[in-house]
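Task 17 of the worksheet. Students: predict the tertiary structure of the chain below and write it out as structure tokens. Keep your answer in the requested format; marks are given for formatting as well as content.
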Amino acid sequence: MNNFLSKLVKSSSGVLTSRILGLVRDVAIAAFFGASKFTDAFFMAYAIPNLFRALFAEGALSSAFVPIMSDKMHRNPDNAYKYLTDLILVLTFFTLSITAVFIIFSDYAVLLFIPGYLNDPEVIAAASHMLKIVMPYLVIVSICGLLSGYLHVIGSYYIPLSSTAVLNISMIISAFLGGYFGGSVTYLAWGALIGGVLQLIYILIYSLIKGFRINRKKRIDKMVKKTFRLIIPSIGGVGINQLNFTIGRIIASFLSTGSISYLYYASRLFQFPLGVFSIAFSTVSLSEISNSYSRNDLNNVNKLIDKSVLAIIMVIVPASLGMFFLSNEICSLIFEYKIFSSKDTFATASALRMYTIGLICYSFVNLFTRVYHSVKDTLTPVKFAFISFLANIAFILIFINFMGHSGIALASSISAGINAVLLYTSIKYYTFSIKKYKRTVLKIFTSSLLMLIFLLFLKNAGIHVLIIIGLSVCVYFLSLYMFRVSIRQVLK
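Model answer:
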């Protein structure tokens, strides 16, 4: 389990590197472009390849690919390289086909995603032009996803999870160039494409260093076909989860100008702890659980899931409380520069609070979905994702009438909670050891409550938000120490 902790630290460090630069990127975009109809256009154009990215690069395919790759690496690395090479070729063909369709029919595609701007041809034209630029990123990032999966299998986490830092650096530069040379958001689209190319070069070189070799023979590995059969139901699940965000932004296009941008900025802040901690836990868990199943070590499988659940509770509970009660201060500190106004800050913070309510639910959805995928059950998560999708639409229609774009964020959080409960209660071979860990969980919640009381005291005293965050973190970990709980003890 010490090995698990080591990999978890490397994984979190890799995501943290990328997320920090991603935050700098979003600050630059907000400062130079603010929240306008053209940022709405860019964010939706960029969302289209990223919707498919979740299927082919980070979600369905990775979840089906990693267990198979793990089995092959244990038996014969040469066959594993042959399988990976064939999978890259087939996936490239699929993603190139999707990319071509969206480029050819870009005008119609953007109308599906921002129908609220139907009567604004200037916005539609800008979104269509940017979609043509960013769509090839899908092909690039899909290959990156497979190479990342290979590196996860061999126990390398920092490089693949930090690889999007290269993309973020490119987009930061493009935001500055766009801001100083006319303010066109098209610079961001070019930054995304160039950054994707550099990201692929970065991760490919490291994969070759770590042993990957292109192994192409005439006959395609039979497991490639099986992999795609496995991902068919999983694509539905991951696609539905992504549609929860996408549907919200589509509906937001009918609201006031900038609503899509407010949801984007809020979701980026909300996804910072989700990406750094929850996704890192889930990524390590998938490969480690898959490896344990390959060795038929079921006892270790249950321990790994327990440790991941505890880790999520330990980090996400205090993070959620802090982010909820400091939402205005955080948004002001991060985004309120140049043309991003206090009105934009307030609108972004209101959405952030609603997203934060579901932060722990999203964390558990990520974890439990990967638990199913580690045993090659890709169908069950789809059923629950579809139920949560329907619930999301229903709640949006209820909340949007009196909460606006913030209602979209709240609906997303509630639907994530429904999904998490369904996933957990349906894992027949696993139940969290409440009796074993109840004292630890109680101490974590008590420490979080003490931290919150201290945080609210400092907030009411008018202390700067960075000082509040720093001191509150110290109080939380000091409380854990006094209760004789530590991260190393929990994850050891």
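Marker's comment: The mean pLDDT is 85. Residues 2-432 form one domain.
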